[in-house]
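Run DUF1735 domain-containing protein through structure prediction, thanks.
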Amino acid sequence: MKKNVFLFFLALFAVLITGCQNDESDFPASDNPTILLSTKEIYGAPNRKFEIKAALADDLGLKSVRIQIPELFLDKTITFGTDPLIKSYDLSYFFEIPANRGTSEAFKIKLTVTDVSRNAVDENINLRLDGEFSAPAISMITPKEGAVILLSSSNEMPVNFVVNDDSGIDFIHVKCEALDIDEMIQLQGSPQSYTFNKTYTLPVTAANYVLTITARDKFVIPNTGTLNINVVATNEYPAIYLCDQPKGTNLTTDAVGVPMYFHEKNGQDFEFKYYADKDNKEIYFLGQESDFAPHCFGLNETGNLVDDVVSTPIILPTKGYYIIKVNPNTLVYSATKYTPSSKVWADIANGLWHDVEAQRRPFVSVCGAGIQGADWDTWTAWAQTGLHLANNPDNPYQLIGEYVLTGTMEATFTGQWWSPSWRLIKNGIATMSPGENGNAKYPAAPGTYKVILDTELERAFITTKK
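Sure, done. The structure for DUF1735 domain-containing protein is below.
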């Protein structure tokens, strides 16, 4: 009896051992797996992800790949299935370097690839944390985006910009196919800063041009930056803007309405409606939207209108609404105060959502994209009370508030079921619906913005909160 029990357990043990051995490897001998690295040197930086890329292969089948950086506590194994066998694999693994590591540190990344025949091979990759990943910074002096060159005054286009890069600049390329501009400047000695300054001659025919500036740095893995500048060469101004900001103000940091687009145009006669929020308000007229140069219309020492970047502002003597007319060709302007007669949207802070229209009280909030808390549902506009606008106590025609913008923005200022509503179209125009369709998209840096909806002007002003 004891002998039979012994033989039983002996047989069972043999079966288990055989089973384990079969589980361990049922595969014949094969060649070693191969690792083809995309690079033997990876540059990273603290608090930044880097990518490990390699092509793995085996003539029979891959079993696993192990990725190790002991100092950074990285030990990752990727295991492959055997049904079917995986003979090739493109490794792409991302890892974020901890923020507390130093930029002078360096490590070894160890890759171990094992195949189903239990052959294993290792490869090491150097990891350095002194990487430089910023493209060269191109600072445009002239022309600025959307610049207007008045051909009747001059057909010359000065191009002036500065390029900066910490690792040194390799080359700068200035190109405009329509103007046969194709200049490659190969820099010697890897300077960290370079200033380009050259004047080009434009054809006498009006046209729009795109000037493309490209700069590449001298880092081991080069970074390239590109800037496109749209330039309008014209025989007359397509638009004039009213600007109430001091000279030197960056006119590209606000989201909407600065400077203000004209209201009516007849030939080169431009008309604005404008609200001066205080006595002795200072304004200029600009021939372009993004800068005070090259066309800035103000007053000279004799009080006449001139197109000169050193001109002094026009003064609107008292607070209130004005009709302002200007002709940039004849250099004649007028400013006449008026009293608005449009509807006043009063007491909107006490609005009420109600399915029965007779019991509803108007509120004004916002629907749109790129605005924190907003979507395209007017119920959301009502429910998100932080999006509601309020009456400006100093001006019954203005509704005011603050919004957090998260990026490119589009908006309709609205009450319940789009009544009332003002659609924000291009150039800061906020038309009361029914009106023009097509909400415009406005690029905006994330942050908190002051909002003014002027229902008399049908303009919106969304400006960075100072």
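Residues 1-24 have pLDDT under 50 and may be disordered.
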